[in-house]
């Protein structure tokens, strides 16, 4: 019998995408209110989760094609990074276009004494690094679609790490990755400015690159742990124990997640076990994985990407043009959700039309 795919990780990605949405929406809530206190940590740890998943899938991809990847590791690293971006390129550039138009309107409204042509040209020049996905190298001037810093940092870090993985897979997965992840995580914990921001720079490295390095290395170590679980805890007798471990970790992390935040220093330590939960989920050896095998769940990963790339445009419209300023903040949350849904639908439609147009041209005989 053919085994069904486990979509539990996709559901987790959807959950953390919604948390990042609510983190950015927190500016619509009253300052010092409960909504801000609860969601204050969701942005940092939501992105950290995605870095972990990215590192884990990077290691998984390498191990599935290990023989062919070790022949020319440099070219293999470039191919991997290019393929990684190609899978999201349509959504990336379409959502970038939405945010560019919105940012242009915002700048026109804020600087009415400056000509539209000058404003447009300055915006084009400032958005070049983001357009080429290198803003996290430190050349970032403005943030058109600010959430895309994650993609830039991920790709910049994956290029050398994938090469390292090709050259020394055993050392990278079992020694370097867990050590580097833990040391960087400890470094973030000791910083005195709250959650370590992607725009903070330490020497030549942006905060986004350091956060990506920490999360991706943690993800590679998570893959090694998940593989160990598959190899040594595959018997039926361990399934119940792994299920119990997953439930306990999930309840603990959820309680930390939904209660008002304390200091960032305390939250770093409290949410340290996230990779352990991801490893159990990815191993598929817990009984809970059987609940996430419905075929319709295959669409949830696409939905997560659409929400992630398009919600910032909605937030920009509401905050910069003071939409529904006199309404209760929950209604403004609802407005942001509706605008995000509209941008997601438009983005998906445009992507489909572009793909269909190119497909038809490619199929025509020369």
From TrEMBL:
InterPro entries: Acyl_transf_3_dom
Residue ranges of domain Acyltransferase in the record: 6-347
Record field: transmembrane: 12-35, 42-63, 83-102, 147-164, 171-188, 208-226, 238-259, 265-284, 333-354
MF (Gene Ontology): acyltransferase activity, transferring groups other than amino-acyl groups
Keyword Transmembrane helix: yes
Pfam family, one: Acyl_transf_3
Key words of the record: Acyltransferase, Membrane, Transferase, Transmembrane, Transmembrane helix
Keyword Transport: no
Protein name: Acyltransferase family
Organism in which the protein naturally occurs: Ruminococcus champanellensis (strain DSM 18848 / JCM 17042 / KCTC 15320 / 18P13)
């Amino acid at each position: 019998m053919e085994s069904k795919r486990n979509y539990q990780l996709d559901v987790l990605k959807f959950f953390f995408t919604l948390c990042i949405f609510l983190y950015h929406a927190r500016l619509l809530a009253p300052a010092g209110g409960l909504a801000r206190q609860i969601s204050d940590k969701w942005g940092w740890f939501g992105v950290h989760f995605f870095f972990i998943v990215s590192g884990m899938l990077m290691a998984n991809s390498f191990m599935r094609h290990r023989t062919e990847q070790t022949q020319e590791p440099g070219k293999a690293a470039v191919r991997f990074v290019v393929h990684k971006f190609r899978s999201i390129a349509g959504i990336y550039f379409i959502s970038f276009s939405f945010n560019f138009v919105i940012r242009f309107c915002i700048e026109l409204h804020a600087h009415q004494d400056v000509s539209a042509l000058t404003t447009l040209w300055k915006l084009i020049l400032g958005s070049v690094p983001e357009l080429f996905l290198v803003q996290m190298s430190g050349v970032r001037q403005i943030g058109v679609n600010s959430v895309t810093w994650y993609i830039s940092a991920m790709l910049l870090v994956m290029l050398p790490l994938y090469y390292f993985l090709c050259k020394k897979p055993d050392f990278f997965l079992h020694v370097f990755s867990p050590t580097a992840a833990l040391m960087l995580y400890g470094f973030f914990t000791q910083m005195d400015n709250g959650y370590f921001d992607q725009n903070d720079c330490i020497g030549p490295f942006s905060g986004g690159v350091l956060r990506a390095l920490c999360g991706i290395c943690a993800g590679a170590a998570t893959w090694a742990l998940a593989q160990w679980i598959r190899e040594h805890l595959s018997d039926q007798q361990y399934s119940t124990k792994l299920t119990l471990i997953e439930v306990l970790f999930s309840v603990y992390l959820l309680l930390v997640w939904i209660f008002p935040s304390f200091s960032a220093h305390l939250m770093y330590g409290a949410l340290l076990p996230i990779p352990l939960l991801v490893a159990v989920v990815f191993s598929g050896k817990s009984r809970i994985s059987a609940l996430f095998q419905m075929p319709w769940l295959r669409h949830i990963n696409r939905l997560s990407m659409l929400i992630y790339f398009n919600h910032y445009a909605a937030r920009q419209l509401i905050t910069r043009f003071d939409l529904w300023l006199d309404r209760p903040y929950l209604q403004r949350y609802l407005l942001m959700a509706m605008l995000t849904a509209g941008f997601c639908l438009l983005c998906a439609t445009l992507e489909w039309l572009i793909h269909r147009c190119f497909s038809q041209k490619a199929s025509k005989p020369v």
